[in-house]
């Protein structure tokens, strides 16, 4: 039996107090409905609705996807009336399965552009939130520069056809909102980007400069750009997991999300958030979100990249097996203790050593079954946000501790080099794959040119000590067994 309202009701699966009477527009419109949004924000809203079904009966999310490859998913979720299960696993193995009903409407820009604009223009829409990935903001963080060269941005500046970026949709939608109701809006960024709300502001305002500068003043006055830290490990669901669910509940869910039990959502306080029950959704409101973002991006996300890349080098395809390798585990612990933690600010009540211990347990959770491939994907955008800031901060110290940070970059290079040599670079999942392919195919290409030619690495290209270490580690990887290279690193740190 397939999952939809009818079948879920028949089987008594709908949450207590569930009402199907809610009508759009809903208070939240979300860009980027992938696994993470569904295990995190949409799940959190479900907790609120479960507690107060009557009070928040019209609360829900209009999900919007923009990437052409997401159309099939949008159709699959729509076929299930927006319903899907979240299956959470604690490191000890406890499993919880919940039906999520908060995505009331799911739209794709290729088919529903006018509806999306109407939703943005409606005064009923109060929050527009985003999980558009690290690269989706299209900002070079080392220079705080909007990247105009991106082809989708260039297309959107022509104001023709279906929008390719959220920026054009926002420009058009907010213009209609200004004319229709002139009401303010909360723009809530939920991506793994330091100062994500500021980065969103920069990107949107820059885009408007060339697209429609008449909107700049309105956006500056009426849009509140909120910063958040989001956390819940959410891998790509496997066919086996869908099959297991079918055996358990006798219902076929094509949009199942599997994730860990751990959940964290830290949001920076802002007057524009006063009316929203974010705490009841499980969020923590703080004066300054930056230290939480730094902690999470550097220890968790950077640690993930380390585990994924070294894991792949040693032949592991799963994060939970890679982190249990004693060599990788030791490198990770050294990285946290010697390189990352000294760059972090004090957070009242947080003990970084405990946080790291907890991360090791979270990475090691076998039920999450996260792949090294997912973690490695998008590294061109991820590493500058997860790892380079640690190197920048360390370089400001007298005796900078940067060996492992640079080692992660070298392991990434080694990964790309292997893919190239296997003639598999086309399989590399990265927004900048074409650039990477072009570089590795150039006659006379060598690792010493990498930092100069990959714009996302420019912020470290002029540090001789970084270049020297990078080349040394790349040469080690290219000439010796990865196990021996890791062993040697451990003797140096
Ligand atoms: C991961 C994140 O994509 C990655 O590289 O580190 O998706 C990570 O699992 C989440 O940020 C956890 O909150």
TrEMBL record:
Domain of life of the native organism:
Bacteria
Q: What Pfam family does this protein match (any one)?
A: Mannitol_dh
Enumerate the spans annotated as Mannitol dehydrogenase N-terminal domain: 28-272
The alphabetical list of record keywords is:
Oxidoreductase
Q: What is its EC number?
A: 1.1.1.58
Q: Which InterPro entries match?
A: 6-PGluconate_DH-like_C_sf (IPR008927), 6PGD_dom2 (IPR013328), Mannitol_DH (IPR000669), Mannitol_DH/Oxidoreductase (IPR050988), Mannitol_DH_C (IPR013118), Mannitol_DH_N (IPR013131), NAD(P)-bd_dom_sf (IPR036291)
Question: In what residue span(s) does the Mannitol dehydrogenase C-terminal domain sit?
Answer: 288-434
Keyword Oxidoreductase (UniProt): yes
Q: Name one GO molecular function term.
A: tagaturonate reductase activity
Entry-linked PANTHER family: D-MANNONATE OXIDOREDUCTASE (PTHR43362:SF7), MANNITOL DEHYDROGENASE DSF1-RELATED (PTHR43362)
- Report the protein name in the record: Altronate oxidoreductase
Organism the protein comes from: Mycovorax composti
């Amino acid at each position: 039996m397939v999952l939809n309202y009818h079948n879920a009701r028949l089987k008594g699966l709908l949450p207590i107090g569930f009402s199907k009477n809610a009508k759009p527009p809903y208070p939240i419109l979300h860009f980027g409905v992938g696994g993470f949004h569904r295990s995190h924000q949409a799940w959190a809203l479900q907790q609120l609705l479960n507690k107060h079904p009557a009070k928040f009966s019209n609360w829900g999310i209009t999900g919007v996807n923009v990437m052409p490859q997401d159309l099939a998913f949008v159709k699959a979720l729509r076929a299930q009336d927006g319903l899907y299960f979240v299956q959470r696993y604690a490191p000890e193995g406890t499993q919880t399965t919940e039906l999520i009903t908060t995505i009331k409407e799911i739209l794709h820009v290729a088919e529903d552009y006018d509806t999306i604009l109407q939703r943005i223009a409606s005064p009923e829409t109060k929050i527009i939130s985003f999980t558009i990935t690290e690269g989706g903001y299209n900002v070079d963080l080392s220079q705080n520069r909007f990247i105009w060269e991106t082809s989708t941005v260039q297309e959107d500046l022509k104001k023709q056809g279906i929008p390719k970026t959220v920026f054009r949709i926002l420009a058009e939608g907010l213009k209609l909102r200004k004319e229709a109701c002139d009401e303010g809006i909360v723009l809530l960024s939920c991506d793994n980007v330091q100062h994500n709300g500021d980065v969103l502001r920069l990107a949107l305002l820059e885009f408007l400069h060339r697209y429609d500068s008449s909107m700049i003043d309105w956006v500056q006055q009426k849009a509140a750009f909120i910063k958040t830290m989001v956390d819940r490990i959410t891998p790509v669901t496997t066919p086996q997991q869908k099959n297991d669910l079918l055996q358990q509940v006798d219902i076929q869910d094509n949009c199942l999300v599997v994730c860990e039990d751990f959940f964290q959502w830290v949001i920076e306080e802002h007057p524009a958030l006063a009316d929203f029950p974010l705490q009841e959704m499980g969020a923590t409101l703080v004066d300054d979100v930056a230290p939480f973002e730094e902690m999470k991006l550097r220890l968790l996300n950077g640690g993930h990249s380390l585990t994924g890349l070294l894991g792949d080098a040693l032949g592991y395809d799963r994060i939970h097996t890679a982190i249990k390798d004693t060599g990788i585990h030791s490198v990770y612990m050294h990285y946290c203790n010697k390189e990352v933690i000294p760059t972090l600010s004090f957070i009242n009540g947080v003990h970084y050593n405990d946080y790291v211990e907890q991360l090791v347990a979270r990475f090691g959770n076998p039920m999450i079954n996260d792949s090294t491939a997912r973690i490695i994907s998008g590294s061109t955008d991820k590493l500058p946000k997860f790892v380079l800031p640690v190197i920048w901060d360390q370089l400001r110290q007298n005796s900078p501790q940067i060996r492992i940070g640079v080692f992660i970059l070298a392991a990434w290079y080694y990964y790309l080099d292997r893919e190239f040599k296997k003639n598999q670079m086309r399989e590399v999942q990265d927004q900048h794959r074409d650039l990477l392919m072009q570089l590795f195919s150039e006659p006379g290409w060598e690792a010493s040119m990498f930092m100069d030619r990959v714009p996302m690495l420019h912020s470290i290209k002029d540090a001789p000590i970084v270049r020297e270490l990078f080349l040394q580690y790349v040469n080690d990887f290219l000439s010796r067994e990865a196990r021996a290279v890791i062993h040697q690193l451990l003797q140096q740190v």
